[in-house]
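Appendix B. Extra example for self-study. Work through it before the problem class; the solution is given directly after the inputs so you can check yourself.
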Amino acid sequence: MKKYNTFYSVPYVLWLLLFVIAPLLLIVYQSFFDINGQLTLSNYQTYFGSGTYLRMTFNSIWYAFIITVVTLLISYPTAYWLSQTRHKQLWLLLIILPTWINLLLKAYAFIGIFSQAGAANHFFEFIGLGAQQILFTKASFIFVAAYIEIPFMILPIFNAIDEMKPSLVNASRDLGATNWQTFSKVIFPLTLNGVKAGVQAVFIPSLSLFMLTRLIGGNKVITLGTAIEEHFLVTQNWGMGSTIGVVLIVAMVVIMFVTGERRKKGGQRK
Amino acid sequence: MANTIIKFSGVNKRYGETMALKQIDFELEQGKFYTLLGPSGCGKTTILRILAGFTDASAGTIEFKGQKINDLPANKRKVNTVFQDYALFPHLNVYDNVAFGLALKKTAKKVIREKVLEALRLVRLTGYDDREISELSGGQQQRVAIARAIVNEPEVLLLDEPLSALDAKLRTAMQVELRQLQQRLGITFLFVTHDQGEALAMSDEIFVMSDGEILQQGDPVDIYDEPINHFVADFIGESNIVKGRMLADYQVEFVGHQFECADAGMRVNEPVEIVLRPEDLVLTTVEKSKLAVTVDTQVFRGDIYEIMSHDAAGNEWLIHSVRKSAVGQQVGIYFEPEDIHVMRFGESEEEFDARLESYEGDDDEEV
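Solution. Structure tokens for the complete assembly:
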């Protein structure tokens, strides 16, 4: 038994070493070198000493927060409605489908839709609002980011709602709860883990969105993701790029810890 | 009836093409233990769900203390339900589960505490209030579910097969406890089960259901002793059912013999069905017997021997005997006239009751 277990774990361990552990170590290692290859802590000094980087950090967190809130507000009711429909697996598939299409393709599609003569502006003209500058605004950036992230929020929430026994809702109503009380005291607490998983799945990747900030946001929104890209590809300051990477990784760990499932106290008592 | 609490009149429930309930009429009196008994899919749970307000009747009226409640939402009804899967809230501990209904009504914290602890005491779970639901056994969860329902002091408690997930021994113990609880609280219980033993053990009154209809209503002894038709006889307990013919009042013929019986009020030579309960059949010698049979199989059940046998005409007879027999042996079976239960074909419950009343009245006059 034991031998087989070890054997089957080989791909996983290899993957972990090559694509998780090694890159992490490399990033941390790189972050201690300045642009001239000198071992130094100056990258961290620059980062925490400059208003620019701190503002970028704030921007990243702020936009990730807004994107998460927007997706949550759309996804929760959607997931709830989906779980009540008859052909829920079909509807769910239709929501998952767009995630199979390359992100870049979707971004370019939105450039087309939001451009000066795009479909969105045609519609605005039709309803009498006239053509607007849609592309390269913060609003369009949030819109497209939310569009891309929504399936990742709906899935865990849908699963949590779907797993919930329907008799619990009946029990709550039976005990005198109104629809709102049933939602706030039974349904929402029981689906909170799904919401947490969804928030993780949306917030963390949103921290380092860089392609959309450029293609859709027109660099109006500068996040840490944009900064990393600039440092690696344009200024070639790998040390500084790595430092920002380390900060992002730490931020992600913090988020995972905050939203992660914690054991209920007393759960293990005998 | 003065203290009628629930009344169903002409209730139908249609799911698409299928009729889950056909013309259900019944009344429940205050303070009694009622059981809806029937095989799965007979509509018993649908009645419960309609009464609790989880689903609507397609037609007919449901009255609570004389007031129509068809359109009253579930959270406004003075009934509480114990669910088949208990439906305890997994994110709340025992105390908060039981306190759920009271907390919604904005009851004072101190009152909630008193009532919850009292309810837990009633279901014998004192000291379990800060346990998590996942820490409890099936039987304990079941009792929390009961406590959570009765703490709201409902006028009617609905129980949807609450014992089906428990093992046999615990189930028997809970049957006794439920019955005692109902008598102590004095509220109406409507219990749903497919287990005839459970129904007979607990109920004041049983409704036997099949295929969306109530076939027979009566106290457990009536239902067991005077099943209205083949289905009820077969469903309630084990029975030997054979075809027969009424020769005259108190005279019946079956398996080629004439017997004295306790039934009357039928046409001369009317074809009927005869029910003989296996425990009413007594093993005896062929000479002293009313019917000679040959033993085919014998199974030891602990308290009794379950003997399958056949008579000369090939009819099978199931006998529950405390005495042992032997396979292949010729034995006699003996039964009293009262043990023969005669059932007419297609007799409705009203006709059945009227007929019983007519000749049982005669008996009284003779005495």
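Self-check: Chain B has two domains: 4-225, 239-366. If your reasoning did not lead you there, revisit section 3.
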